[in-house]
Design goal:
The chain is an alpha/beta fold. It folds into two domains: 149 residues, Aspartate Aminotransferase, domain 1 (Alpha-Beta Complex); 240 residues, Aspartate Aminotransferase, domain 2, CATH 3.40.640. It has a seven-stranded mixed beta sheet with strand order 2-8-7-6-5-3-4. α4 runs parallel beside α5, α4 packs across α9 and α12 packs parallel to α14. The protein is globular. Keywords: Aminotransferase, Pyridoxal phosphate, Transferase.
């Protein structure tokens, strides 16, 4: 007996997440055939030999007997106090434990906060390129993503005048990703102040994804948004995944700052939604205080001679040596976002290129258009591999691009 096909939510057709999508599925098929791939599609430190710092591991193992019960829906009180103290030291206004929400990674809190904020048809201003979870969470919570351009010719920084021109009566929030994924841009203070002014004048919520806040190169600054926002309602997102190399622990947080009266309803809505999912992962919360107030283990990795700094150097130098590539050097985060230029860029299709690179050179990258940009000549790589491996990756990329030039830059049809 046959059964009717089960229909799924229609809006899922609008959601893109190529970081773990079709190309990643094809990669698993090739690996099942015995192929060994260099997978640069996910910023997953543990997959490249990084470990969460030992003092964080000890903080969990020393309290493992206390991790069986549910905790408060917003998180362990001591963990929330540690986050609040960290933000108070930065100058975040009204940073108290009551205004801290701990979640199963920042991803869950992005979804939860947009669910608390949006009514059907409400608009969220998002950067283009963006981390695609932001677009997906907006769509799946019945909102509408509206993109402001972050162009390579402007160092991937947005124009505040263009942001304000997109504001309509349906606009509810402005999202910033700083340092940016996928571009690595770090936003100057003056730019952030202008965005705060837009939010203040239009009554918008600021949402600042700061998961890479301490991953910076060559003296690039990081300016947290909440201290600049003052009384303007602001949600600041952070976590253990990237700076502390503990992705699998799924520990993230959001701090709601600004005028408590203006954000009281949002606070209650987030608390309700947090209660409906009972609580976040408890064991990882015991590492938060050690992470935020203990030894700084990320700065040495980002300093000259450190592994991340040298990986970034390998990418920057490889691109500079190529006649087919261009790059705005990342100031922060764990990624580079090169563009294909010149003869190799004629008729270029980023998805077909990514597939050809994987099929012929055993390298998996993410097409740039996956990050909600209108152009098709970029791709993203992570900076997590060893520097020598990244140099080898760009040698393989160079071979694919050179073949395209010699073939008259005709895009090869996808075969998978």
């Amino acid at each position: 007996m046959s059964h009717p096909t089960l229909a799924t939510r229609a809006r899922l057709s609008e959601v893109r997440y190529e970081i773990r999508g079709e190309l990643a599925r094809r990669a698993r098929e090739l690996e099942a055939q015995g192929r060994e791939l260099i997978k640069l599609n996910i910023g997953n430190p543990g997959a490249f030999g990084f470990r969460a710092p030992e003092h964080l591991q000890r903080a969990i193992t020393g309290r493992i007997a206390d991790t069986d019960p549910y905790t408060h829906q917003q998180g362990l009180p001591a963990a929330r106090e540690a986050i609040a103290a960290f933000h108070r030291a930065r100058g975040t206004p009204n940073a108290t434990p009551e205004r801290v929400f701990i979640g199963n990674g920042v991803s869950e809190l992005i979804d939860l906060s947009l669910r608390a904020l949006l009514n059907p048809g409400d608009e969220v201003l998002l950067p283009s390129p963006d981390y695609p979870l932001w677009s997906a969470a907006t769509i799946l919570n019945d909102g509408r993503p509206v993109y402001y351009a972050c162009r390579p010719e402007n160092g991937f920084l947005p124009d505040p005048d263009e942001i304000e021109a997109l504001v309509t009566p349906r606009t509810r929030a402005i999202v910033l990703i700083n340092p940016n994924n996928p571009t690595g841009a770090a936003y100057p203070r003056e730019l952030l102040e202008r965005v705060v002014d837009i939010a203040a004048r239009h009554g918008l919520l600021l949402m600042s994804d700061e998961i890479y806040d301490s991953i910076l190169y060559d003296g690039a600054p990081f300016h947290p948004l909440a201290p600049l926002a003052g009384d303007v309602p602001c949600l600041s997102f952070g976590g253990l995944s990237k700076v502390h190399r503990a992705c699998g622990w799924r520990v993230g947080w959001a701090v709601l700052s600004g005028d408590p009266l203006a954000s009281g309803e949002l606070h209650h809505a987030m608390d309700l939604l947090g209660a409906l999912r009972l609580c976040a992962n408890v064991p990882g919360q015991f590492a938060i205080e050690a992470a935020l107030h203990g030894e700084d283990t990320i700065a040495p990795l980002c300093a000259p001679g450190g592994r991340l700094h040298e990986a970034r150097r390998a990418v920057v130098e490889s691109v500079a040596a190529s006649e087919h590539l261009d790059l705005v050097a990342p100031a922060g985060a764990l990624y580079a976002f090169p563009s294909v230029v010149g003869a190799a860029g004629v008729g270029f299709d980023d998805h077909a290129f990514a597939l050809e690179l994987m099929e012929t050179e055993d390298v998996l990258v993410v097409p740039g258009s996956s990050f909600n940009v209108p152009w098709r000549n970029h791709f993203r790589v992570t900076l997590l591999p060893e520097p020598d491996q990244l140099r080898e990756v760009f040698a393989r990329i160079g071979r694919v691009l050179q073949r395209r030039v010699e073939a008259g830059a005709k895009p090869r049809a996808a075969t998978a």
